[in-house]
Amino acid sequence: MIRRTITPRVDWQAKVEALGLIWHTVDGRPYWDESACYSFTLAQIEEIEAATAELYRLFLEAGQHVVDRPDLLASFGIPAFCHDAIRRAWNDEPPALNFGRFDLGYDGKGPPKLFEFNCDTPTSLLEAAVVQWAWKEEVFPALDQFTSLHDRLVAKWCDLNPHLHGFLHFAHVADAAGEDTITTSYLRDTAAAAGLTTLPIVMADIGWHADERQFVDLEERPILAVFKLYPWEWLVDEAFGPQLVQSLDRTLWLEPIWKMIWSNKAILPVLWKLFPHHPNLLGASREPPAGADAVAKPLLAREGANVSVRKAGAVIAQTGGDYGAAGFVYQELYPLPETAPGCFPVIGSWIVDGEPAGMGIREDGLITGNTARFVPHVIEG
């Protein structure tokens, strides 16, 4: 795994905007950063792909373990009124994209290590699926890249089409940066390519029809199926949370409510207990390790908020935010390679329908946050 410094295309901003990536610059610095790229050998890509498939297998076993133990599910901080619905959804397997992004530490020498699984509201999707492929085709047409994301998403929507009543809402928050809007719009495009009729809606415009006991849009149309880029823990905390759980037989939410298990970092100590010293896992606990090197992460958080890195008991890096009330997990510190001054890459390895589907790379400091840069990759050798 080698980081190469290269010259960006003169008109790169216009080219990525034409693909839908309007959120390409943050505070005057590129978010989409093609002044560098990462080069991998095919063997390294195969190692990442195999680790991704293996981690998915581990999550299946860990999810069943949690579902089978009421006290363990309660320890995740999930409201009690959701527990039965989570168990039913896990066992009944309602239609789902079953997609997500494993964030991995990798140095090209040892096995990839799991940091967390973003499987409820994963972003950086358009960049990984479309933008970096178009960049590769123009800049390095003779090389390959690890991505089948776009084709797999379209194929999965084709599989889901018969279950979606011929019409699918796509919901997201009206975020100022546009990141959630971009991700949701791209997923709408993949659904449309599969022949689905879609309609966008912001979360604030979703209504509850008390008489019909049905979610509706601004035109009073029933919302029978909806993809939401909005965390389940926020959804069930809304005023309509109990009604939402009670009406899961009338509105199909993508992804399903059982994703509250996998997207919660409380799953990390469960994985470590079930599979201690697994080569793709890092030690994790709900209790801070005395004097050991560790990373403290809130059970529920986004974009690297409220994370602290600790060495020998001392905090060497931390981020602010509004998370942490539900508790923390403490994960063994993985020494990310510093591939350039201040640049620590994290691999985002994607799955669609439970299968490895490609990857993207984000660079930041010791903690990967909202302003991390997306750097494309190629496969050589």
Give a verbal description of the structure:
The protein contains eleven helices and 21 strands. The protein is α+β, with helices and mostly antiparallel strands and 381 residues long. It folds into two domains: 2-264 and 337-379, no CATH class; 283-332, no CATH class. The chain has a five-stranded antiparallel β-sheet with strand order 6-5-18-19-20. Strands 13-17-14-15-16 form a five-stranded antiparallel β-sheet. Helix 6 crosses helix 7. It starts with a strand and ends with a strand. The model has no long low-confidence stretch (mean pLDDT 93).
Which strand-content bin applies to the residues? Answer: 25-35%
Radius of gyration: 20 Å
Would you tell me the overall average pLDDT? 93
Total number of strands: 21
Number of helices: 11
Q: Which structural category fits the helices and strands? A: alpha+beta
Basic shape: globular
Strand order of the largest sheet: 6-5-18-19-20
Biggest β-sheet strands, sense, barrel: 5 strands, antiparallel
Helix amount? 25-40%
Number of structurally distinct domains: 2
How would you summarize this macromolecular structure in one to three sentences?
It is built from 11 helices and 21 strands. The chain is α+β, with helices and mostly antiparallel strands and 381 residues long.
